[in-house]
Write a structure and sequence with these properties.
Length: about 230
């Protein structure tokens, strides 16, 4: 059974802990590793790996500490090069080339963000559960079957963003970057509608904007659309 714990999910830092009961992983390392230790009650010796989606600091800030702790860390070559890091525990990975960490089989896939070589991840365990992790992407080109757990960005609503621009809360120049780098509620709805959700147990909405989102609205909208259990990370 997959267990998910959100340690941080915002532009200030992102980090998630998942386990299937046998193998534990970190998804992202965007907060201080000492804070990770505290939030996991110092039970970090069994973490088998850390997946990094891209090079922005709110996703990789603590990568050096993760590596020093002895945790193998998986990222694209483009991400590692842009971070400017080399280490024997960095494991370069490529989109659509699967690899295994303990009881997880992991398939990286391309996402759409304004960085070097960003990735999302499809993780499958030996019990047949499938977890999709996708953050900092405005679009997902792939379709998936048999997903049981979904950790996916829902950064903003276009309607809220446009009203904030009208009201002068958000500079108009920010709009283009947002719509070309982050997942909106509207794009998430399109993704959910296009995919097989029949086996979904949990949907976790990640990386909500402080200014351009509405937790209650997002949760209510996704629950109504899917009929699934929805959490705001």
């Amino acid at each position: 059974m997959i267990e998910i714990k959100t340690l941080a999910s915002s532009s200030k830092g992102n980090c998630y802990h998942i386990t299937d009961g046998t193998t534990s992983l970190l998804l992202e390392a965007g907060i201080k590793f000492r804070d990770v230790r505290i939030m996991l009650n110092f039970q970090t010796s069994d973490i088998a790996g850390c997946l990094i989606s891209h090079e922005h600091k709110d996703h990789c800030m603590a990568v050096q500490d993760v590596l020093r702790t002895g945790i193998d860390t998986y990222m694209s070559a483009g991400t590692a090069e842009t971070i400017g890091i080399t280490h024997h525990r960095i494991k370069p990975i490529k989109a659509l080339e699967s690899f295994e960490v303990g009881t997880w089989k992991i398939m990286p896939f391309n996402v759409e963000h304004d960085v070097a070589e960003p990735l999302g991840f499809l993780l499958a365990n030996r019990a047949g559960e499938k977890l999709l992790f996708a953050t900092d992407t405005y679009y997902i080109r792939y379709r998936f079957r048999g997903l049981t757990h979904l950790l996916i960005e829902c950064n903003y609503s276009k309607a809220i963003l446009d009203q904030n621009i009208i009201d002068g809360v958000v500079p108009k120049v920010m709009r283009k970057r947002l719509i070309q780098s982050h997942m909106s509620l509207e794009n998430l709805i399109d993704f959910l509608t296009a995919n097989d959700l029949s086996k979904i147990q949990e949907i976790h909405l990640l990386h909500l904007s402080d200014t351009n989102s509405d937790e209650a609205l997002f949760k209510r909208t996704v629950q109504k659309l899917t009929g699934k259990l929805v959490f705001i990370a």
